[in-house]
Amino acid sequence: MVVILVIVVAYSEIVFEGKTLMMHDRVQGVSGRACVSQSDIDHGSEQASLGFARCLTSEQVRNDPRGDPGAGAWALTPWARTVHRALADGEPPIWNRYEGIGAPLAANMQSAAFDPLLLPYHLDPRAGVHDLSMLVALLLIGCATYLFARVVGLAPVSSSVAASVFALSGWFFAYNNNDWFRVYLYLPILLACIEWCSRSRAWSSFAILGVAIAGTIAVGMPEPTFVALTSASLYALLRLWFGPRVWPRAKCALRLAAGAAVGLMLSAPLLLLFAEYVPRSVNSHDQLPSLRPLTDPAGAMLNWIVPTISPASIGNPFAGTRNWIGAGACALVVVAFVSPDLVKKHRGWLLTVIGAAVGLRIYGGDLVEWTRHIPLVNVVLWPVFATPVIAFAAAILAGIGVEALRRGQIPRARLGLGAAVAVVLFALLAITAGPDLDLGLGDFDLSGGWGLAAITFLGLMLLVAFAPRRVAVPVVCALVLVELVMLAPRGIYADRADPFPQTDWIRLVRGRTAQNQARVFSPRGVLFPDTSSAYGLQDPRVLDAVYIERYWRYLRRFISPSIVDRYTAIESSHGPQTFENNRMFDLLGVRYMVAGHRTKTPAHYRLVYSSARKRVFENERAIPRAFVVHRVSTVDDEARAIAALSKGEPRREDGRVDVTRKDPAREAVVEARTRDISKLHACRRPDASSARFVAASSTEITIKVDTPCAGLLVFTDAYYPGWHASVNGAYVKILPTDVAFRGVFVPRGASIVRFRYSPGGFRLGLLLTGLGLIVVGVAVCVDLRRAVRSRRAAAGDAPGSGVGGPATVPRETGKPHEVTRDSATQHCRSAHDSARRLELP
Asked: Within 13 Å and on the Cβ side, how many CA atoms surround 69?
């Protein structure tokens, strides 16, 4: 209750004042507002770039530690709306038809489509439900840390301090606008399950470990998930060699491996979809192994005491310690280390090794150059995602410091030496930081700056050294908790509101695109890509971590060669956007363009809506999303398809191929064998062919085709494995068409074509999940049965004895033996001695 109360006080603005953790009001292209003004655009791309930068920084509230305001607003919240639509339609959330030309949804793990903790939000994606879900996650982080602290033997008061330090550490404030901070809810649970597996004979121990592993994966952010699971694996490895166990080392390792296997089985649908997507995708992290590992400067370690002590020392956008635990917790860590026996008893040394290993990777500089050759390790942004591991280790050490104070096991000489070492270390780091160090001496802030830090550290050390234990323990705990609450940022949260309000132009565009499944487009950031999906609009642009490789190559060759890691169509990022007179852009099925109120009418577009802030234009040359062609060329692979489309076409200065000699509305290039098109013949009336959408959902599309002669139905959604097609009920092969799209041959006359997404990996994953649930159920049932037998044995419920009566020997002896006070006392002493040998709390 103390931990919950402290967290509620720290987030009181969210709980009581109607504020929100979302940041939609401060980023571009959300809620129908654009931060890049028309005047910026009129003054050229450089000014527009500055305007885009101002959008992300100028409206940031002072002392707001959230360094990534756009991720939640641009991607995570729209994905939640997409998952909601799929669930409302009774479909699994495995395909996103609104992003790009369609893309995997669950396989894009950041969507967290299978996370059970987000189910309330996915069922009701309102801002209030989102904030409640995130608050519950924050409370669970504190409770899970308390659980682990109790498991390793810390007293309730010590566990409360440890849980508060971790739950209110700075990383959770820096990323509470991004749902995936919940990954670190599972770190203390994983470690507690590892302890349980080592010290218990219960089958449920490895089963619950598997559930915790599956929960960690289901959160969906691969990088912190990898860090959390790697840290837990290192702890498990160390735990095999240090600390009490009820099993031999080999058998204990086998139980831990069984828990990992159960976790992988439970998360198999997500992992198999992800494994299928990654080899067919493009992502910016592929470049990281060829770069020097990104590390923080040593001086940034001072941020653990007070946030942003040396902001100027941040040399790249992924560096700069985004975490803090406060001076009080740092002082308690010093107190813990002067009591090494307690550190050993409560697993402090194991956590220290893990925290030090992660810290070396974050601050090691040239020392960790070799890590770029380690697969998976070399694609993780450790300074961004790994600091909670250090914070957790420090939090448990802080709890051990309180435990040492509570037990009176703090030699003053050692305490003085520890304090001196801490001061020297601080001085060395300050010298390392050099002129970038910001001590804030001109602003001695008692509300969370260096003033509070100095008073907290000095006061805590004096209390530990000289105050009686009855006074020191509650005062020290209160001092640490008060500092944590005062370090919690305030005044940074916006008022809670609908992040995607319905406007006239939204209703207009949705109504016009409903029948023909047309796509929308928005240059210059008026409407951001994934925001379109929140409104149920299909948009060819993408803002994501991974992209379907075929579509990415299509964009770079024919639409926007300068894109690097996203396609937002903002000129300052991608150069001039050539959507006018570009037939390969028209092929994407973009019929409506949303722009600012000063935008001039582009060529081949007509104005259909105008207001004081927005204009909507209709592309009169847009190619339908589904159409039939009768002139088909065949090639062997994707590279030859790109070459065939580019052959004889002019190349612009930016590298874009301008397709002018071919009409993609009448001819297509497919990757197939020549005999596959042998049934196609010249058609006298090609324009008489038609294709009309009958039904459309995320995983199933039905199109009615009517053509005077056999042809190729081109459907401009992504060509991707897992999609199956049938023509008049007979399954047909889907052919890669014009590099990125789908094509199926249709006979003359009327036909019904159905596309259905049913990936084999997902079906296999569901089977494995079912097997995993069976294993978990069997393990729990076995333990329940054992528990029932133990209770009956303890109550003397042997065959032939009375239930609930005194314990007796078997009836055939004829001499019932009542449990006396002396025998009961002897039994309790024996159990107590066993518990001491195992170091159980």
From this structure: 22
Helix then strand then coil, % of the chain, to nearest 5: 55, 10, 35
Locate 694 and state its tokens.
């009958």
Question: What's the rounded Cα separation, in Å, for the pair 243 and 196?
Answer: 12
Taking the CA atoms of 90, 94, 98 and 101 in sequence, report the sign of the dihedral they define: negative
Tokens 């339609």 — which residue?
89
How many residues are there in the chain? 841
| Rounded Cα gap, residues 29 and 55, in angstroms | 10
- Looking at residue 159, its amino acid is S
Is the Cα torsion angle 515, 517, 523, 528 positive or negative in sign? Answer: positive
- Determine the distance from the C-alpha atom of residue 184 to the mean position of all C-alpha atoms in its chain, rounded to a whole number: 11
pLDDT of residue 60: 47
For residues 363 and 386, give the distance between their C-alpha atoms in angstroms, rounded to a whole number: 11
Residue 754's contacts (CB-CB under 8 Å, 6 or more residues apart) are 700, 701, 702, 703, 725, 726
Q: Distance (Å, rounded) from C-alpha 422 to C-alpha 49?
A: 45
Q: Do the Cβ atoms of 539 and 525 come closer than 8 Å?
A: no
Retrieve residue 677's tokens: 């098109």
At position 545, the amino acid (one-letter code) is A
Q: Which pLDDT belongs to residue 597?
A: 80
> Which residues on neighbouring strands pair with residue 756, listed in sequence order?
700, 724
The highest-confidence range among 255-259, 593-597, 658-662, 834-838, by mean pLDDT, is 255-259
- For residue 402, pLDDT over 70 is answered with yes
**3-class DSSP assignment, residue 548:** strand
Q: Is 619 helix (H, G, I), strand (E, B) or coil?
A: strand
Query: In whole angstroms, what is the distance from residue 404 CA to residue 398 CA?
Result: 10
Q: Give the separation between CA 481 and CA 456, rounded to whole angstroms.
A: 11
Whole-number CA gyration radius for the chain: 31
Nearest by Cα to 97 from 589, 502, 549: 589
Token pair, residue 840, equals 């159980």
Kindly report, residue by residue over 499-544, the tens digit of the pLDDT.
888 888 899 999 999 888 999 998 877 888 888 999 999 999 988 8
What's the distance, CA 613 to chain centroid?
A: 34
Alpha-carbon span 662 to 454, nearest angstrom: 73
In contact, 567 and 740? CB cutoff 8 Å:
no
Report the alpha-carbon angle 798-801-803, nearest 5: 85
Query: What is the spatial distance between Cα 767 and Cα 265, in angstroms, rounded to a whole number?
Result: 9
**Percent of the chain residues topping a pLDDT of 70:** 86
Q: How far apart are CA 148 and CA 835, in angstroms?
A: 18
Are the beta carbons of 498 and 22 closer than 8 angstroms? no
Alpha helices in 267-386 (DSSP H): 268-277, 326-337, 340-345, 348-363, 382-385
CA–CA dist 568, 521 (Å, integer): 10
Which distant-in-sequence residues (6+ apart) come within 8 Å of 268 by Cβ?
A: 764, 765, 766, 768, 769, 772
Per-residue confidence (pLDDT) for residue 577, from 0 to 100: 60
pLDDT of the residue at 51: 40
Residue 815 pLDDT greater than 70, yes or no: no
Rounded to the nearest angstrom, the gap between the alpha carbon of residue 96 and the centroid of all alpha carbons in its chain is 17
The model's confidence at residue 686, banded by pLDDT at 50, 70 and 90, is confident
User: Do the beta carbons of residue 776 and residue 262 sit within 8 Å?
Assistant: yes
Residue 724 phi/psi, 5-degree rounding, is -125, 145
Residue 817 scores a pLDDT above 50:
no
pLDDT digits (tens, 9 = 90+) for 185-240: 999 999 999 999 999 888 899 999 999 999 999 999 999 999 999 999 999 999 99
State phi, psi for 711 to the nearest 5 degrees: -160, -175
For residues 657 and 649, is the Cβ–Cβ distance under 8 A?
Answer: yes
Q: What is the pLDDT of residues 557-583, one digit of tens each?
A: 999 888 888 888 876 555 556 777 889
Scan for tokens 């409640």, then name that residue: 132
pLDDT of residue 451: 78
- Whether 81 and 129 have beta carbons less than 8 Å apart is answered as no
What DSSP character marks residue 675? G
